[in-house]
Specification:
SCO family protein; 8 helices; two-stranded antiparallel ribbon; metal ion binding; disulfide bond; SCO1/SenC; copper; eight-stranded mixed sheet; Glutaredoxin
């Protein structure tokens, strides 16, 4: 992998990761939306190579897509799994709220928000389309992508997103919220949101679960979340990033 966060690795080792959690500890403090965004994430200035930007994926609408095709736009790229019971619903809710807040901008150069799966085997276009529609109405500037395992893994390996496929815990298996089919495995993964500027340079990274008001997570996903996920939602970490901070990063890149 291209980049690892030493802090994240230490947290994973000490706390252990379950489901798709980042392993963050939680407090009852609600993060302030006015906190300084540059104290939360990691600023960068690294050109994403053509070999990564040219990788092709498929959107939930069935369209062929790539990062290269979004040249001229700020891109907000997040890792996601539609069958995550922990932090992904919170991540997605905050990304979607940010996308809605940015939707008023000129479409020719407005930010584009992408949720790319870490579980391409189950996150088909049909599954992603249903996931996207849970956030009704889904903003037009938010896309959900899947693709071949090779391309998905190549991109996430480049950006340094940690992933590990594991068997489901013993006991009654959780069921796909869309199909009702029992789940046989989970994908543990780190949580990051990457900000690329209009020239295709990686400029900023936010790590860990954000603060999301409870009402922004769709009911179907809230019902699907496990106790750890509900705890993350109701008791966010004091270091959780916010929609306001994501918007501040975007503004700095325009």
């Amino acid at each position: 992998m291209r980049r690892w966060s030493a802090t994240l690795v230490l947290v994973l080792a000490l706390a252990g990761v379950t489901g798709c959690s980042s392993g963050s500890s939680h407090s009852r403090a609600t993060p302030s939306s006015s906190a300084s965004w540059d104290r939360i994430g990691t600023p960068l200035n690294s050109a994403v190579p053509a070999a990564i930007r040219d990788l092709t994926f498929t959107s939930s609408s069935g369209a062929r897509v790539s990062l290269a095709a979004l040249s001229g736009h700020v891109v907000v790229l997040s890792d996601v799994m539609t069958l995550c019971q922990e932090t992904c619903p919170i991540d997605t809710a905050t990304v979607v709220q940010t996308a809605r807040a940015e939707a008023h901008r000129d479409s020719r150069n407005s930010p584009v928000f992408i949720s790319l799966t870490v579980d391409p085997g189950r996150d088909t276009t049909t599954q992603l389309r249903a996931y996207r529609n849970l956030f009704a109405p889904p903003p037009a500037n938010w896309q959900a992508w899947t693709g071949s395992a090779r391309n998905v893994n190549t991109l996430w390996n480049y950006f340094g997103v940690w992933r590990q496929r594991v068997k489901e815990d013993p006991g009654p298996a959780p069921r796909n919220w869309r199909t009702g089919v029992p789940l046989t495995y989970d994908v543990q993964h780190s949580d990051e949101v990457f900000f690329l500027d209009a020239a295709g340079h990686e400029r900023f990274v936010l790590e860990g679960a954000p603060y999301a008001p409870t009402g922004t997570v769709p009911k179907a996903l809230r019902k699907f979340m496990d106790s750890s996920g509900i705890s993350s939602l109701e008791h966010p970490a004091s270091t959780a990033w916010t929609q306001a901070q994501a918007e501040a990063v975007i503004k700095s890149l325009q």
